[in-house]
Amino acid sequence: MKGFLHALDQELSRRGLSDKDTLAEVESHLLDSIDQGLSQGLSPEQAQQRALERFGPPRLLAGNFEKERCYRMQKILLVCALVSGLLIAYVDSRPTWDDTGITVFALLVTSGIIGLLVQRRPWLYALAIGLWIPLWGIIHAQNVSMLLVLLFPFVGVYAGWALRLVVQKTLHLA
Amino acid sequence: MIGEALKGHLDLLLLAILENNPAHGYAIIETLRQRSGGTFDLPEGTIYPALHRLERDGLLESEWSEGAGRRRRIYRLTPKGQPALAKRQQEWRQFSRAVQATVGL
Fold first, then answer.
1. Which of B29, B46, B48 to mutate to test binding with chain A, by most A CBs within 10 Å of its CB?
2. 20 to 30 A Cα–Cα from A54, which one of A3, A78, A151, B77?
3. Are A51 and A77 in the same domain?
């Protein structure tokens, strides 16, 4: 059973969803299930085997948690990324705006914050934030080199994402 | 087939089971199995993500209790969960009546 709980913990951690309470709850469920098997005359090994089979594989459970927990929040987050990316691109496209440093800073900070909250597919959020400035540059000035601007949201999102994983790992180990 | 059909109605089943009796996850799955005569025999782990979501939505609340040397998380319906259950029951009655009328059983 320890191996099962460890595998579940790993599956949840991989999705940024590791939670001691959930693991304790699953352990309690499995112990109840094993107790029932024993009371029905199964051997300890058979009872444990049946409890684990009835519970389902760790990957299935972790996947279900991911769907339930992340779906709504990630949709909202994607909308936030799109809106903020469009806003930054709009300000940057104004004829009176010539402060590239602030634009880069805004891209990095926004994408870093989004990256901290993203559970999966960070590249999608980086694109949602950073695609608009290059798109504007290509459409209005045929300047394909503007695609390099995408570098900043990618750096920001992946930095935020990595920071969250490190913090989660540290807190989980503590 | 039954497992797939069950997915869309799991919230209703969980809320209905908890309507009058607070219970922990294992007891919920046992009640589900017993009340359905063994028909609803889905992987037990699948109820936990749904229970946690219903709790986040404020329809359920939970607390840990200690008994017989084991900690268990007990779920109960909240005041907000009661009308949500009634609404889902009403929807189910309409749905099942429509299916019966269509299928002709």
1. B48
2. B77
3. no
Question: Tell me, what amino acid is at B87?
Answer: K
Contact B86/B92 with Cβ under 8 angstroms? no
Phi/psi at B92 (nearest 5 deg)? -65, -40
- Same domain for A38 and A116: no
> Does the global pTM surpass 0.80?
no
Q: Computed over its alpha carbons, how large is the radius of gyration of chain A? A: 23
A101 and A25 within one domain: no
Residue A33 to residues A5, A20, A36, A37, A47, Cα–Cα distance (Å): 15, 20, 5, 6, 8
Residue in A closest to B42 by C-alpha: A54
Within this chain, do residues A149 and A125 fall inside the same structural domain, yes or no?
yes
d(CA B21, CA A142): 67
Domain boundaries B2-103, corresponding CATH code: 1.10.10.10
Paired tokens of A87: 């806003």
Residues A45 and A104 in one domain: no
- Among A89-98, A129-138, B53-62, the least confident range: A89-98
- Which residues in chain B have Cβ-Cβ distances shorter than 8 Å to A61? 43, 45-46, 48-49
- The secondary structure of residue B44, as a DSSP letter, is G
